[in-house]
């Protein structure tokens, strides 16, 4: 009897080979080329099955290669389609980061892609999917399976308005419910591919994060008629059967492949790590000519910053500040005229800079396609924003540590800002909401009712990661992405020296 096998990757983010673009090269056992090998092996082992292979979003954004294509080699956009065809994906889903390049770019790169499924992101005028189609039906041996494609509706909370102009982001739960009602009598099985994750624990139902509409996987599982769910977005590695329904979430950068088996007799879910798989030669042949050009571009030097901008202790840098974060804040303030700035050490892979800085160093440290926004905060709001940042820390066994809230369900170091232009005391031993004191701006005590301009990235300005911020506070915005601003600043200031910041006084 024919059974269904669903193979998936998600959040490849432009890492098509094992090159992580840092130097010396770190081949950490990931990349689409390895995932393609695993996919092919699984297909060969399931010749009697109906096999459906899904790329679950965030495919064309996230690496120096994808930025290079968008900025300097737009004609190379066909690479993405060729890679999809070579792996043999039958289904593609839009990820939230795909919108970092804007609607027009998406329509250019994906406009007639027959594998693209998009049921819930609509054109405001036509009320139809602005690109792609809502679902596709696959059939083998009399077995019919519908795959519905949806994307997190939370994108407007992060994305620049001009990048999503004319789009409606509908609730995927409502959209899927309506489609299931139409499809359930036409097909034998219904699979949902969702670029989003889970905001609740799959076993206990306990909330894992604020219950926004960002990660509605648990709600999608409750829809009667949904037989399996492929997820992504959170970069987690998940494979479980929940109330009889298999789910997967296959990691990040092609480091895992999700496998769901679905039949009337059994359901099963697993993920397969790709680290030990060989790299698919066809994928390598497609990617390497462009990779060579990208690496030449990345090696261009842009300035010198001294010998103290290498990040060796990420926790200490977040707690006390660091010359590297001070540099980024100076870039942000110079670009906008704001006197206060905040930025984050996005993850523990960030190394900071050696003395000689190249474009590669900038792109592998500032990995997001952010622009800048200046927000007007009252003094009271600014203190509350600092208090939210202080929640990153907990006190345990006589020392500060990272709060589990920022480690689970996924690491969220990118939500911990390090500030410049404001001085304060931080006492991690105190209860949350009472850890910040002696706040000074320009040498004067902060005034609760006064307004202060603060520059942050557009992600933070929308309230992501710190609810004190919101779009209504924005007074002006920049259009140039931050990585380019850093490059420009270093070229304008080719020899920089920044000492260890002293504006954060950590109370022992």
UniProtKB/TrEMBL annotation:
Residues 5-236 form the Calcineurin-like phosphoesterase domain. Gene3D superfamilies: 3.60.21.10, 5'-Nucleotidase, C-terminal domain (3.90.780.10). SUPFAM superfamilies: 5'-nucleotidase (syn. UDP-sugar hydrolase), C-terminal domain, Metallo-dependent phosphatases. Keywords: Hydrolase, Nucleotide-binding, Signal. Pfam families: 5_nucleotid_C (PF02872), Metallophos (PF00149). Residues 314-466 form the 5'-Nucleotidase C-terminal domain. The keyword Nucleotide-binding applies. It comes from the Bacteria. The keyword Nucleotide-binding applies. PROSITE patterns: 5_NUCLEOTIDASE_2. InterPro entries: 5'-Nucleotdase_C, 5'-Nucleotdase_C_sf, 5'-Nucleotdase_CS, 5_nucleotidase/apyrase, Calcineurin-like_PHP, Metallo-depent_PP-like. Belongs to the 5'-nucleotidase family. This is Bifunctional metallophosphatase/5'-nucleotidase. It comes from Fructobacillus americanaquae.
């Amino acid at each position: 009897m024919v059974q269904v096998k669903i193979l998936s990757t998600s959040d490849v983010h432009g890492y098509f080979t094992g090159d992580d673009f840092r130097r010396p090269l770190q081949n950490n056992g990931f990349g689409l080329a390895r995932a393609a090998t695993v996919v092919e092996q699984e297909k060969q082992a399931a010749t009697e099955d109906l096999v459906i292979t899904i790329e679950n979003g965030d495919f064309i954004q996230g690496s120096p290669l994808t930025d290079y294509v968008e900025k300097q080699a737009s004609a190379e956009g066909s690479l993405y389609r060729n890679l999809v065809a070579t792996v043999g994906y039958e289904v593609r889903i839009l990820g939230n980061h795909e919108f970092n390049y804007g609607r027009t770019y998406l329509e250019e790169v994906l406009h007639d892609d027959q594998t693209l499924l998009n049921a819930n992101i609509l054109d405001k005028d036509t009320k139809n999917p602005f690109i792609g189609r809502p679902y596709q039906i696959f059939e083998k041996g009399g077995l019919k399976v519908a795959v519905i494609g949806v994307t997190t509706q939370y994108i407007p909370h992060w994305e620049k308005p001009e990048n999503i102009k004319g789009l409606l982001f509908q609730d995927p739960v409502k959209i899927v419910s309506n489609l299931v009602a139409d499809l359930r009598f036409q097909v034998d099985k219904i699979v949902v591919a969702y670029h989003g994750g889970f905001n609740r624990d799959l076993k206990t139902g306990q909330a894992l994060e604020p219950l926004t509409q960002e990660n509605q996987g648990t709600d999608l599982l409750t829809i009667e008629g949904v037989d399996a769910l492929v997820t992504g977005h959170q970069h987690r590695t998940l494979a479980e059967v929940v109330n009889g329904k298999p789910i997967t979430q296959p990691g990040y950068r092609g480091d895992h492949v999700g496998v769901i088996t679905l039949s009337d007799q059994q359901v099963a879910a697993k993920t397969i790590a790709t680290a030990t798989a060989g790299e698919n030669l066809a994928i390598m042949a497609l990617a390497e000519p462009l990779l060579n050009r990208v690496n030449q571009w990345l090696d261009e030097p842009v300035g010198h910053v001294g010998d103290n901008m290498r990040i060796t202790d990420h926790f200490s840098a977040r707690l006390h500040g660091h010359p590297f974060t001070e540099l980024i804040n100076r870039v942000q303030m110079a670009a906008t005229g704001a006197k206060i700035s905040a930025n984050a050490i996005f993850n523990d892979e960030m190394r900071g800079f050696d003395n000689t800085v190249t474009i590669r160093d900038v792109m592998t440290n500032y990995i997001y396609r952010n622009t800048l926004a200046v927000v007007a905060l009252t003094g009271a709001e600014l203190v509350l924003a600092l208090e939210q940042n202080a929640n990153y820390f907990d006190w345990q066994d006589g020392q500060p540590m990272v709060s589990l809230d920022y480690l689970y369900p996924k690491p969220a170091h990118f939500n911990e800002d390090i500030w410049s232009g404001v001085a304060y005391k931080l006492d991690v031993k105190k209860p949350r909401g009472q850890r910040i004191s002696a706040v000074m701006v320009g040498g004067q005590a902060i005034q609760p009712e006064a307004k202060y301009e603060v520059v942050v990235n557009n992600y933070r300005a929308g309230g992501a990661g710190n609810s004190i911020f919101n779009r209504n506070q924005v007074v002006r915005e920049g259009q140039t992405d931050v990585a380019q601003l850093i490059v420009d600043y270093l070229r304008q200031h080719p020899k920089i020296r920044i000492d260890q910041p002293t504006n954060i006084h950590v109370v022992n």
